[in-house]
Design a protein that fits this description.
The chain is mainly beta and 384 residues long. Helices cover 6% and strands 31% of the residues. The protein contains 3 helices and 33 strands.
Length: 384
């Protein structure tokens, strides 16, 4: 009799539904989702609900379509994955989710997606028209892959501390921005909206790889530093492209924008950034500028073409330059490079070097299936 009772009790336990944490390793979100929905593909939930419910190692799938949002979508600093079990926020299959924040007013508090947690992998999202940054990253050890940030009213994708009270030990570190595009970001003053930024308050180990910044009102990349917050951690930019920054895709310009391709510092603070195998093409001011960073930067195997002022401008410091190439299709301002410069470089001093014959024609680019950036000039692949 006792065995029959125990068996019946065990069967009743096994028949109970799984706890929520076990059932929410996969959640689906759609523009028409409900906060109280189960989060299955047939009963999708909302993005904010899914973020609060997903478990470490879990996946949030965003269905395609436009998500009309008026307030910042925040992943809080208490919401983390782990080294071996990242939380993933990703487009579903080949669908295109667009987070549209056009209902926001222009204000520093009105960001689009704020990734303040750590060990997240954000993939395949378009974030547009936020009142400030499209994607803001205040957490660490995140991957931002195949994102597009466009038409935002400050920098498209920015890394900085979460708040003024955030201690330096918690500044965002070891984030990877991979195969991302950022374009046509513009603030009303025309002087702050860059494509990408890791500035003012970031830790070490942040990397941009296979990224493209174009037609932003200010700079393509901004690694600005200020004396009141001190030096930031070393940033690496590699295998990336900045072009036509300072002029929007519709031809619009603003007199206050700096218009550089890669702006690498500020206020005479030395930081040893690494910039390699990148291309600056036809930006409205300089291609690569130290911007008062006197540090021992490593600038190698980069190509700079037809930027409106200098292709390379480094007026001070101890930067190491190796195998860089500067080309012009007509006359222009001579490059200036102060630091460790050897004969492997071909800088512009009134004439093109021998390597420039391979770098002529119209610019083209695309991401390969593996995410690598492919750049062409005149239809020919650029190899740096």
């Amino acid at each position: 009799m006792k065995l029959a009772y125990i068996g019946a009790a065990l069967a009743a336990v096994l028949a109970l539904p799984l706890p929520a944490s076990a059932a929410e390793s996969v959640l689906y979100v759609s523009p028409s989702g409900r906060a109280g929905a189960t989060g299955t593909i047939s009963d999708p939930t909302t993005l904010t609900s899914a973020i609060s419910r997903i478990s470490a190692g879990g996946v949030i799938y965003l269905r395609g379509g436009t998500y009309s949002l008026a307030t910042t979508v925040t992943i809080p600093p208490t919401n983390n994955g782990t080294v071996s079990a990242r939380k993933k926020l990703t487009a579903y299959q080949s669908e295109k989710p667009v987070l549209n924040f056009s209902a926001q007013t222009e204000d520093p508090a009105n960001r689009g997606l704020a990734v303040n947690g750590s060990y997240w992998h954000v993939y395949g999202l378009v974030v547009e028209r936020a009142g400030d940054n499209g994607i803001f990253v205040g957490g660490s050890n995140n991957i931002l892959e195949r994102t597009i940030t466009r038409f935002n009213r400050d920098t498209g994708l920015q890394l900085s501390r979460i708040a003024s009270s955030t201690p330096k030990a918690q500044w965002p570190a070891n984030n990877l921005v991979l195969s991302a595009e950022s374009h046509d970001n513009r603030d009303s003053d025309g002087e702050d909206a860059d494509g990408f930024a890791a500035k003012l308050t970031v830790g070490s180990g942040n990397v941009f790889r296979y990224a493209v910044a174009h037609n932003n009102i200010d700079d393509g990349w901004d690694l600005y530093t200020k004396t009141d917050t001190g030096p930031i951690g070393t940033v690496t930019i590699e295998d990336s492209l900045a072009y036509k920054n300072g002029t929007l895709s519709n031809g619009g310009q603003a007199g206050n924008g700096d218009r550089n391709g890669f702006k690498l510092g500020g206020e005479d603070i030395a930081v040893p950034h690494v910039v390699r195998r990148t291309i600056a093409f036809d930006n409205g001011k300089h291609g690569f500028t130290y911007n008062r960073n006197p540090g021992a930067m490593t600038v190698s195997n980069n190509l700079s073409i037809d930027n409106d002022q200098r292709n390379f401008t480094f007026d001070a410091g101890s930067t190491v330059f190796r195998s860089n190439t500067s080309c012009r299709s007509s006359s222009g301002t001579n490059d200036k490079t102060v630091g460790n410069v050897d004969s492997s470089n071909q800088f512009w001093a009134g004439a093109n070097g021998s390597r420039c014959s391979a770098f002529t024609g119209a610019l083209g680019w695309s991401f390969a299936s593996d995410g690598k950036l492919r750049v062409t000039l005149g239809g020919k692949a650029v190899v740096l």
